[in-house]
């Protein structure tokens, strides 16, 4: 996954793997004050999406249960395969950049992330716009349905309800998108990045703690291999322009909003641990003890792992694969907490949507009974 890095007076690798010659003629050297502000801001921007996304995930999953909608969750097999699929994708992108023009590929990426970023930001901001816009606003509700086929073959592709307040929100988010499209400003980048992170933690779903451990363990190896073992990630990231990282300038005090000497953190280092932390919050709620012990334990573990990443990176003056520190912390501390509390069995037997499997088992039994009767 992406790494946490700093820019300085020596060549370094940034959060997406970009190698940067940070000489004094191109960039103002980072001061201790500037570095403190940059890293403090990155830490805050990293923990906020996890905090908000985790609690939003509780509501999201409850809404799915109430509506009877079958959630899309990652199985243990999917979790084990994910690092291999990610590796193949990364190497495929590397080959594409070797063959085709970097400018043309990045043009397509910019347009793609423009639309994706606007929708992600609108999804987060829409409830706040609904509260801010006065009741006197001439609102009107709309219902957009898109289907394919006829009669028995008719299939629903899209079913979306919205109103004029949502359209106002979409226009404002579109303005942010145009700002990013034209200027590629770091604030616009961060707005999109934060929206992606919150949506990712909220919507992406792990169903079991064991699945989360498999996923994090596999990406732990993936991150180390592609950062330290090859130059593939570095080469791809040098060419890849997209809001897939959070950035904050270390020369903000000297250059203001025009600052360009960035410390960076990849979104993967937020979303991947974040969906595991969100699962532990839902586990806390399932225990019905009016406490959030495992959520707080994993949340503090993430913070400590992130701080360790910064310390090691600053000491060695080199980019670090953040999951190298985040994975042991986010898995180890909650497991240790469960051992101390004697709830390790409950933790690993917890399943976020058990009723789904129960329904499937009942349906299978009914089918078996019908088959036996027919025989």
UniProtKB/TrEMBL annotation:
UniProt membrane topology term: Multi-pass membrane protein
Xref: InterPro entries: Peptidase_A22B_SPP, Preselin/SPP
GO CC annotation, single: lumenal side of endoplasmic reticulum membrane
UniProt keyword list: Endoplasmic reticulum, Hydrolase, Membrane, Transmembrane, Transmembrane helix
Region described as Disordered: spans on this chain: 352-375
TM spans (from-to): 36-58, 79-101, 107-130, 188-206, 213-237, 257-281, 293-316, 322-340
GO BP annotations listed: membrane protein proteolysis; signal peptide processing
Pfam family, one: Peptidase_A22B
Domain of life: Eukaryota
Main location: endoplasmic reticulum
Any one GO molecular-function label of the UniProt entry: aspartic endopeptidase activity, intramembrane cleaving
Location within or outside the cell: Endoplasmic reticulum membrane
Family stated for the protein in its record: Belongs to the peptidase A22B family.
Record protein name field: Minor histocompatibility antigen H13
Gene source species: Pinctada imbricata
